[in-house]
Amino acid sequence: MPEGAFSPENLIKQTRAVGEAAAIRRVNSADKMDITKMLEVWRSRDVKEYIVGGEDSFKRGELKSWVKGGKYKEIYAVSGSQKVEGDDKGEIQGWVVVDGTSGERERAERGLGRKLGDELPVLEVAFAKHPDAPAGQIASAVRQVCLLISQRDAQNAPIGEVQPKRLVTAFVEPDNEASIRVLEKCGFVRQEKMVSYFPEDAEDTESLDLFYLLDWQKLHDIVHGKSGELFDGFQNR
Fold first, then answer.
1. Which of 69, 81, 182, 227 could form a disulfide with 139, with the two C-beta atoms 3.0–4.6 Å apart?
2. Which of 148, 143, 15, 132 is nearest to 83 (CA)?
3. Are 85 and 115 in contact (CB under 8 A)?
4. pLDDT tens by residue, 97-153
5. SS3 77
C-alpha cells in the first residue's frame, strides 16, 4: 500500500451492526487509496456490464465529485471489516448508492402500475463490488444502509409507529445472478412486473429489468437471525 494513502480517520468513522461481515462509512474524496479503490470498482467487468453509465469510466477528478453525493443521493463505502485481512482491512470493498431523485419515483410507478402519493418518499438502491472483495461484503453493507434508512425514519416517526414510511426499490438485469442473491439476502422481494430502466426502452423486451421492493419486516428478520438479537443501532468498528 502506498505510503500516506490510507487515512486512519476512515476507521474511526466507519460503523458496523452486530453480526455483519462488512462495515460502512463515507468515501473520503481526499484519500488517495479510497479514490483508487473506487476507480477499480468502476473499471471492473461487472460494473461495465450491469451498471447504468458503467461503460463510461470516471476520471479521478470526476469520481472525487461523484463520491460526495448530493441532496438526494448518498454514497457509502463498503469498508473491509470481518473476513478482510492485512492492508485491505478498512479499505473499500465496493459501494452502495441510495438515490431519491424524480427518476426513481417514476420507475417505481411504472413497476407498480399506479401513481404514488407525494407523501411517500421513494428511494433506489444500487451497489457494486470490488473485484478482489471477499464474499458477503456487499449484502452485509446493503442491509446496513437500509437499516440506516429505517433508523432515521424511526427517529422522525410518531410514537408507536415503527414501519418506515418510504419505498425502497432496486432494479437488476435478469442474468445478474450475483446481484439478485444480494437483494434476496437483504429482504428485497421480486415484483411480478419487469420494468425498463428508461421509459424510452419500454417496448424493448431485452431491456427489461427485474423490479424489487424492500420488505422491511424481512430485512429486520434477517438481521435478527444473523445477530441473535433485535437491531439496536451501530457500533464504531
1. 182
2. 132
3. no
4. 999 877 899 999 999 999 998 888 899 999 999 998 888 899 999 999 998 888 776
5. strand
Other beta carbons within 10 angstroms of residue 200's beta carbon come to 8
Whose cell is 460503523? That residue is 15
Give the torsion sign (CA, 76, 82, 84, 89): positive
The amino acid present at 160, given as its one-letter code, is G
For the segment 189-217, the average pLDDT, to the nearest whole number, is 87
In eight-state DSSP terms, residue 88 is G
> Considering all CA atoms of the chain, what is the largest pairwise distance in Å, rounded to the nearest integer?
54
Of the two residues 235 and 39, the one the predictor is more confident about is 39
pLDDT at 172 over 50: yes
Q: Report how far apart the first and last C-alpha atoms of the chain are (Å, whole number).
A: 21
- How open is the CA angle 162-165-169, to the nearest 5 degrees? 120
pTM: 0.84
Pair 183, 172: CB distance under 8 Å = yes
Phi, psi of 215 (to 5 degrees): -95, 105
Q: Are 97 and 125 in contact (CB under 8 A)?
A: yes
- Adjacent-strand bridge partners of 213: 169, 189
CA distance 31 to 64: 10
Please answer whether residues 196 and 143 qualify as being in contact, where contact means their C-beta atoms are separated by less than 8 angstroms. no
State CA 196 to chain mean position distance: 20
